[in-house]
Task: structure prediction
Amino acid sequence: MSGRCRAVAVLVACAITPATADPLGDTSVTAEAHFGLATVPFDVMALPEAKGQALVLVLGGAWSVAPSLALEVRSPLVAASVAQPAGSYVDAAAFGNPQLGAAMMLSRRPVGTGDLTILGGAAVGLPLGGHDEQLLANRALAIANGIDGLAHPDLFTPGVGALTPRADVRWASSTWSAALEARLPLLVRVSDAGLAGPQAETHAFGLAAVLAGDVRHQLTRRLALAVAPQLAIDARPIAAHPRDVSRLQDLERASLYIAIGRRTHLAVDVQGAIGGELGGSMVALGLRCGIDLR
Amino acid sequence: MRALALAGLSIAVAGCDRYWVCEADDPGRTGELPGRLSETGLFADTAARALAPEVVPYAPRFALWSDGAEKQRWIALPPGAQIDTANMDEWSFPSGTKLWKQFSVDGVEVETRLLEKRGPADDDWIALAYVWQPDGLDAVAAPLGGIDVAGTDHDVPASGECFACHGGRRSFALGFSAIQLAAPARPGEIDLAELVAQGRLTAPAATAPVVPGDATQVAALGYLHANCSHCHNQARPEHRGARCFDPKKRYDFTLAVGSLASVEDTPTYRTVVGKAIEPGDPDGSEVVSLMGQRGFLDQMPPLATEKVDTTAVALIRAWIEEMR
Result:
């Protein structure tokens, strides 16, 4: 397996590994867990918001299958306490939409003191996200999407299939790295996911755009600090929002990356939103782990 | 897998005693009730708001604070049926009993809630809210509740949420009791004396219960009874599953018929004064602090209110000041 191929596998594995690290292998697994609270727009006329606490777990893996080409898989699971209108909570758990994707390294070349890497890829989301008559699973997933800055409607919207093309540009030297990722989740409704009838106005298609940056500084051989701003744009909602809501949503994340041996990396996150619909209502703590299985 | 996920959530909030979590409602059970208010038996003519013949209005002496919403209440007992009042503080209603409570905000009818006793067991109640349609001709079942309905800031509880308060008392019907109906009713409304006269109680009280104390004490004890005792009482029925607003503390804000000899005899004085209520020190009293704020985990009552009842806070403060 070429070094280029191994690099793809590592880079697509949710960027858990420090961007300054050398490619370590061609197969990796990741686990991301975020726990937070959020009040997010919800698409039911009588319930224009979903509020609660959630533990969001996303398991993923990446495998290089050809030079410069890797396959990836992600599967989200959410356990939430969903607020009811009067203020009580109900526990709910739901699978999100699992995602199968491919990523290709388009370019890698030295720039200045570091390497510039350009990745392109796409993922297909399978419409297996949980939903139920009481919309508890639906709301749990909405809260999970809120904890993620509304950046993954493809993972957390029930009743939709999704195609998400993406491009990723990153530059890394021995001490600094910077990355910018752009994603365009295109959602296609395949079922009403419990939103039938007059309670919601669903759309056949939805489109979002997500820009996510990441700047890291390698503090020591094992520690790196990162700040990662993100902007999600709800260009075409998959369902009409009952309220007049902002289409733009920011997310700010600060992370400490810890290398544990040569094959395991850990990231500790603090994230929150300043503006948009989530501003002031969302904060989350997280742990992400990536393991190279070579 | 669901159990694993919920276990994960529990681990994530380990250390928090999650009293605010309730069980999900059973949609099948709620589905036993009609889809429209006009089908529940409240009105003979819904558009005209003409009550059905067997429906009687009532008003509890001490009301639950609902962010200033105006409320109307009605009850329909099955013809000839009696309320089992062997325990005068925990009435047991006959199967078929229906109670309605209608909420209006700034003159706009927003919702009407229905409690219906469906069987002989004390907990055999179903609860459902009906949200009024903009044309005012009928109200439609809203088992999931609603947020900011009818252009107001009024929230309608999901049907499962009703049990968070009502499930804290064996009688379930919180505002229809000996204490709450003891005062003479307004014309057209039913009270304790009228229930006795109609032979509706299996064990009528010899005399109407009298809440002890001066006007401030009566009002304060009554307010705490109506707003706190459905959770904070020592006679909660056994309950399985989520904790659902079971405080698990020994505070008791109940006005109980057998504990009215003096203010000091009331459960509030016996279990709360000197603890969450510091005599003569409203600023040092937890009750006042929690009543005076709103926010998750910071407010009392914890449910169905987003606005401080400033009049009640002033009342409770005055009452505590009087204890010097």
